[in-house]
C-alpha cells in the first residue's frame, strides 16, 4: 500500500467520521439552523456528502488526461444552490447513508492511488489553474467541504 495514499485516505476518513458524528448528534432543532451558505444544517451536510464526496469521477478525468467541463465558480454555486432547494427536506438517516457510502468509496479509491497518480495534474477551469490529484482531493473534500463543516458547526454552536 502506498504511504502517501494511506495518509490522505486516513485524513479523508477522519474528516468523514467527524461529519458523521456531528450529524448523528444533531437535534431536530440543529438540523434546521442556517449556516453561512443560507442553507439549513441538514442540507449543508447533505451537500458535503452528495457533492463534495462525489469527487472520484473528477479524479478519473485527471488520471485519463481528459478535460473538465468548462464550468465557472458561479455555475458551481448555482448547481449547489439548486441541490439545496431540491433536497430541503432531507433527513438525518438519508444524509448518514450518503456520508457512509460515499465516504467509504472515496477512502477506498484513494487507498488504491500510486504516487504518480497523486502527482498527475489536470486543469480545472473553475479555478483557472492546474491541480494534482492529491491537491484536488484535498481542495474539494478537506478544504471546501471542511469550510461547509465549520459553517454548520458554527450554526449549531457545536
What's the layout of helices and strands?
Elements: H1 3-24, H2 28-32, H3 41-52, H4 56-64, H5 73-86, H6 92-111, H7 115-119, E1 121-124, E2 129-132, H8 133-156
Antiparallel strand pairs: 1-2
Helix pairs in contact: 1-6, 1-8, 3-6, 3-8
Q: Can you offer a commentary on this structure?
A:
The chain has 158 residues and is mainly α. It has eight helices and two strands, in the order αααααααββα. Strands 1-2 form a two-stranded antiparallel ribbon. The protein is globular, with a radius of gyration of 16 Å. The mean pLDDT is 95.
Structural key phrases:
158 residues, single chain, two-stranded antiparallel ribbon, globular, mainly alpha, Four Helix Bundle (Hemerythrin (Met), subunit A), 2 strands
